[in-house]
Design a protein that fits this description.
Helix content: 55-70%
Largest sheet: 6 strands, mixed
Number of helices: 25
Distance between the termini: 61 Å
Number of domains: 2
Radius of gyration: 31 Å
Strand order of the largest sheet: 4-3-5-6-7-8
Shape: elongated
Strand content: under 5%
Length: 595
């Protein structure tokens, strides 16, 4: 039988707290921890560490920073999120969705200097973390909802392709220089044609990729760990690094990171800030979606603002401990869940296990082939690519599909950072477009159908002589005010009879600003000069309150506002003797005659 939310142990993280407890839910949850969970969290933490180590190294190398940066970020990120994060299952760490964003800043600015690369990555983490903390405390957790699903798919598919192509040279056993998807692709093809492929490295990478793919749905066998350990064992046993020139990771520095402010030059301020903003947006989008998914599965509720604070705090600390930006992981979180994790203690155990390995066994993965690390990143990038839902969007609404393709092309052509900026710009344009040119309709009566309906949808509908009923299906604001005026005048001009009254059906109008209020005032004067009375029906009280503040309500007078369209029609018929028999009145008359 399927599990129900009640079957899961509930943590106090799922209920809102007050005071300091709200900001540090991890400490608040300690008092409610159950001893029965301890065994599950310990086992899950050890299982999780088996994946944290190779993945943390792989994403760090792919981002252009030393491998230890990925491990440092993993350790301090998990510990910090355990304190400040609201989700009891989410696993944070370096992620494939951030690789292109980090590399797009670090690689060109560091110019091969590893210390400068570490400083740049650390500053990116601090900037993105600070932005997340500020946004969370300002309760801006809704901000990622402004990006529609097709646009999110577009930039994530673009980032996935960028990451995938950036790792192909490493998979084939050589390195290239290039910035962006197009340049890296050209350099890769040039390397292939020049015969730079290392066949042994390619075989190891493809074998790693194949094994990860075969075990990607297994909850018992960690495919990434098995693939990486197997590739490392083969290189060590056959001495492939020396005999065949296979590039390997090499020994890791022994020990743990210390606090160090990652100072960068003044010339780096603009690119680092823009990169940090893009990273904050993408990481929180991923984290919030994953957090909501697991909260719904467990029957809990997670505060998106606190989620933003938790993510930001983890990035801030990662940046101060020589790490790189991190996000929630859609690949490592399921590992923790499948291993039986109950709380964030799982992440704490995983972090301490990685730390112990750094201290006691830094040479454990010295023979790990770089092509295997590339395969790990490529497998994650492939998992990011969304195809099935885009097909559905293509069938349902073509223009949104092409918006997604435009975002993908923006990331591919201009790079990850400009591509994200393009995605945000398109999202704003999409939002404004829907309100800029909304649907509107002239309404009429349809026999034997209640209410008033769009005459373009109901050609058999009848219009009341001398009366135009006009419906506007959007808020009234500066961008559509002129369009509203033009549509109203068009409705008046196309009326089959001389117009006496025009009633605006304003139920869909949820707001009005100063610009549109002035336009409404001008429209009223224009119609009045033609002997037409402008009235409004079904307007919501909050919108009426705005008209009162603007002085329009008193100018129009209460008699020109109607609770319903039907009330407005009745007032018009009382004021004007027109040849009109409503079907409901006729039906009532016929009934009375029969009786």
């Amino acid at each position: 039988m399927p599990r129900t939310p009640a079957a899961h142990p509930r943590s106090k993280r799922s209920t809102p707290s007050v005071g300091w407890r709200r900001w540090v839910p991890g400490l608040a949850a300690i008092g409610h921890y159950r001893v029965a969970w301890l065994r599950h969290d310990l086992v899950a933490g050890l299982a999780l560490s088996a994946v944290l180590l190779p993945v943390g190294i792989a994403y760090a190398v792919a981002s252009g920073v030393p491998p230890t940066c990925g491990l440092y970020a993993t350790i301090v990120g998990l510990l910090t999120y355990a304190l400040f994060g609201p989700s009891r299952l989410l696993v944070l760490g370096p992620d494939s969705s951030l690789v292109a964003l980090i590399g797009g800043i670090v690689l060109p600015l560091s110019a091969g200097d590893s210390q400068r690369a570490v400083a740049l990555a650390g500053m990116l983490a601090i900037v993105s973390g600070s932005l997340c903390v500020l946004a969370g405390t300002a309760r801006l957790g809704f901000i990622t909802d402004l990006l529609s699903k097709p646009i999110r798919y577009g930039y994530m598919n673009g980032i996935a392709l960028t990451v995938l192509f950036s790792q192909l040279p490493a998979l084939f056993g050589f390195t290239v220089k290039g910035d962006g998807l197009l340049n890296e692709s050209q350099s890769f093809v040039a390397g292939l044609l020049a015969g730079r492929t290392n066949g042994v490295s390619l075989a190891l990478g493809c074998g790693t990729l194949l094994l990860i793919g075969l075990l990607r749905h297994s909850k018992r066998v960690p495919g990434v760990l098995l693939a990486v350990v197997s590739a490392t064992a083969i290189v060590s046993a056959l001495n492939l690094a020396t005999e065949f020139g296979v590039m390997v990771l090499g020994p890791l520095p022994r020990g743990l990171p210390v606090v160090a402010v990652p100072w960068t030059g003044t010339d780096d301020i603009v690119p680092v800030f823009l990169g940090g903003f893009a990273i904050a947006l993408v990481s929180f989008a991923d984290t919030s979606v994953l957090s909501r998914t697991y909260a719904a599965r467990l029957g809990e509720r997670v505060d998106p603002n606190q989620e933003m604070v938790g993510l930001g705090a983890a990035n801030l600390v990662a940046g101060l401990f020589q790490g790189l930006p991190i996000s929630a992981s859609a690949s490592r979180t399921p590992v923790a869940e499948a291993a039986g994790a109950k709380t964030q203690l799982t992440g704490v155990v995983g972090a301490f296990t990685v730390a112990v390995l750094l201290i006691a066994a830094p040479n454990l993965l010295r023979n790990l082939p770089i092509s295997a690390l590339a395969a790990v990143v490529i497998a994650s990038a492939i998992a990011l690519i969304e195809v099935a839902d885009l097909r559905r969007i293509y069938r349902m609404q073509r223009w949104e599909f092409w918006l997604s393709m435009l975002c993908l092309a923006g990331v591919a052509v201009f790079g990850a950072i400009p591509g994200i900026a393009l995605a945000i710009a398109i999202a704003v344009i999409e939002f404004l477009w829907d309100g800029w040119r909304p649907y509107s309709a002239v309404l009429g009566r349809v026999d034997n159908v209640k209410g008033y309906h769009d005459i373009s949808r109901y050609p058999e509908s009848r219009q009341i002589p001398g009366l135009v009923l006009f419906r506007w299906d959007a808020p009234l604001f500066f961008a559509n005010a002129e369009c509203f005026r033009d549509r109203v005048m068009m409705a008046v001009e196309s009326s089959p009879t001389q117009v006496n009254w025009l009633i605006v059906g304003a139920e869909p109008v949820t707001s009005i600003d100063v610009t549109s209020a002035d336009t409404l005032d001008e429209l009223d004067h224009t119609l009045a000069t033609s002997g037409i009375r402008l009235c409004i029906a079904e307007m919501k009280d909050p919108v009426k309150d705005k008209l009162k503040r603007f002085g329009l309500f008193s100018q129009f007078g209460d008699e020109r506002f109607f609770a319903t369209l039907g009330e407005g029609v009745s007032c018009y018929l009382k004021a004007h003797a027109v040849d009109w028999v409503d079907w409901e009145d006729q039906a009532k008359t016929d009934h009375d005659l029969v009786v």
